[in-house]
Design a protein that fits this description.
Residues 76-457 form the Circularly permuted ATP-grasp type domain. This is Putative circularly permuted ATP-grasp superfamily protein. It comes from Tepidicella xavieri. The protein has helices at 21-28, 32-49, 81-105, 110-113, 119-123, 177-190, 192-197, 206-216, 239-249, 305-310, 334-342, 359-367, 393-405; strands at residues 10-12, 15-16, 52-59, 65-69, 72-80, 145-154, 162-170, 227-230, 252-254, 259-262, 265-268, 275-276, 279-282, 315-317, 349-350, 354-355, 372-376, 385-387, 410-414, 420-425, 428-437, 439-442, 446-447, 453-456, 472-479. It has three domains: 10-200 and 327-349 and 438-479, no CATH class; 220-313, 3-Layer(aba) Sandwich (Rossmann fold), CATH 3.40.50.11290; 354-414, Dna Ligase, domain 1, CATH 3.30.1490. The longest helix is centred in the first third of the chain and has 25 residues, at 81-105. A hairpin with a 2-residue loop joins strand 20 (420-425) and strand 21 (428-437). The chain starts with 9 loop residues before the first strand and ends with a strand. Helices cover 29% and strands 25% of the residues. It has 13 helices and 25 strands. With 481 residues, it is α+β, with helices and mostly antiparallel strands.
């Protein structure tokens, strides 16, 4: 059964939407061979710069992990300013409520006592960290860098309108912002005339905002905080981004072996002797941060880091224990969080979600598997999910058994027809499904650059945009009024 789709550029096959008209006129004048050459040039430059994504599970002929170039598409995703203003308000509201929620569950747990979120949903969550109970973090901010995944889908009823929905909250170590910045640099390099013809809001100041955010949550004892980026190392899938952001902010990129704790403070080893660290932008998961507190076999973290953190002598961004709020089993409660903590109606809606842990929802899920998207609550990266309409009978039945065996481990959602955007593919220009990941920064204030990372599913009909599943990226333009 074909589903209605909403195309970002075209209201009808021969009708270009108002905010795309300047671009569409320009595109119509470009010879196909020129665009093909530009695609090749972009790939050469990205490969030279080293903008790759390591794919776990893929092996080359020597048995080593492979690195892929994330495909870059030349046709931008364009959003008019009035739509962006509404999105921005909704994102700021949502991240504010999520930070309030994380503070609450590690302090008074009012939302549990109010009967809104069940205690077992939090304390039984693998990302809940009892070590954080009662720990005060600067400004009450836990997720300083949040990547919120937004999708757009047609409004039921055939009106031709579409609505933005939040698909997922990424509050631990969200990645992708380097691709947002590099995509913009590439578009400006290849097509400078487009940026004189269109008032595209800038994104290049993101590293400045990030550094400002990180410094704003430094422990109070210093006026000139020292910030570092902590990476698991060059074999991590997002290592390019770690190195890129450190370089753009002008701070040190460190690994766990470069750090040590003494007298409750964290120091970095340098050629001039130890240097005290105030803020760590960590791209290492909780489990690996401190072998004394979490996994004793971890070589990626720093022994004693949790103790220094609990004493308030160093700030970790994002905070330990934020993952409990971006778990898919907590996602359905976010609209209620917004009302509970802020006393406001949610500006951005969730995708309707059925929880396997609820008997009535489970009954519905099992009866409608072939029409639903079913996700493991701890899954990520497009793994551990069933897209019912695209699945085989065997795949549906395998998921049925998995859901029946562990209902609380799954949620299900209707299969949204994500909006499409024209995209260069092997056979020419064709519509492909997209999403959007804006990056929301929370320090003394909540702020963001206009836009985000648009991800595109390059396979015809595919709804899975993740780079680990073969997706690509586009530049995202917010048109200034």
């Amino acid at each position: 059964m074909s589903r209605p789709t909403f195309d970002e550029m075209y209201a009808a096959p021969d009708q270009v939407r108002a905010h795309y008209q300047n671009y569409a006129r320009w595109l119509a004048e470009q010879p196909p061979e020129v665009m093909a050459h530009m695609r090749e040039e972009a790939e050469v430059i990205f490969r030279r710069v080293g903008i790759t994504f390591a794919v776990y599970g893929d092996k080359d002929e020597d048995g080593a992990g492979t690195e892929r170039l994330i495909p870059f598409d030349l046709i931008p995703r364009i959003i008019p300013s009035h739509e962006w203003r509404q999105l921005e308000k909704g994102l700021i509201q949502r991240v504010h409520a999520l930070n309030r929620f994380i503070h609450d569950i590690y302090h008074g747990q009012e939302i549990i006592r109010a009967g809104i979120v069940p205690r077992e949903q939090i304390e039984g969550n693998a990302q809940f960290r009892p070590e954080m109970m009662g720990v005060d973090v600067p400004g009450g901010v836990y997720s300083h860098i949040a990547g919120i995944d937004i999708v757009r889908a047609p409004v039921p009823g055939g009106s031709g309108q579409a609505e933005y929905y939040v698909l997922e909250d990424n509050l631990r170590v969200p990645s992708g912002v380097s691709y947002m910045l590099e995509d913009r640099k590439m578009m400006m390099r290849l097509f400078p005339e487009l940026f004189s013809q269109n008032r595209v809001a800038p994104v290049a100041h993101y590293p400045d905002l990030l550094l400002e955010t990180l410094r704003a949550v430094s422990p109070a004892h210093t006026a000139e905080p020292t910030v570092v980026v902590l990476t698991p190392g060059m074999y991590n899938s997002a290592y390019f981004e770690h190195a890129f952001l450190a370089q753009q902010m002008g701070v040190e990129l460190v690994e766990g072996q470069d750090l040590f704790v003494k007298d409750g403070f964290v120091y970095m080893r340098t050629t001039r002797g130890p240097k005290r660290i105030d803020v760590i932008y960590r791209r290492v998961d909780d489990d690996f941060l401190d072998p004394l507190a979490f996994r004793p076999d971890s070589t990626l973290g720093c022994a004693g880091l949790l103790d220094a953190y609990r004493k308030g002598n160093v700030t970790l961004c994002n905070a330990i224990g934020t993952g409990v709020a971006d778990d898919k089993s907590i996602y359905p409660y976010v609209p209620q969080m917004i009302e509970f903590y802020l006393g406001e109606r949610p500006i951005l809606q969730n995708v309707p979600t059925f929880m396997g842990r609820k008997p009535e929802d489970l009954k519905y899920i099992l009866a409608n598997l072939k029409d639903l998207v079913v996700k493991e609550v701890h899954g990520a990266g497009g793994y551990g999910m069933l897209v019912g309409p695209a699945a085989t009978t065997a795949e549906v039945e395998a998921f049925r058994q998995a859901v029946q065996a562990k209902p609380e481990g799954y949620i299900a959602q209707p299969t949204l027809s994500l909006s499409t955007c024209p995209t260069y593919v092997a056979e020419g220009v064709a519509p492909r499904h997209i999403d959007l990941r804006p990056f929301v920064l929370s320090g003394k204030k909540v702020q963001m650059v206009p836009g985000g990372l648009t991800r595109v599913a390059l396979k015809a009909g595919s709804l899975v945009v993740n780079s680990s599943q073969g997706g690509g990226t586009k530049d995202t333009w917010i048109l200034e009024a």
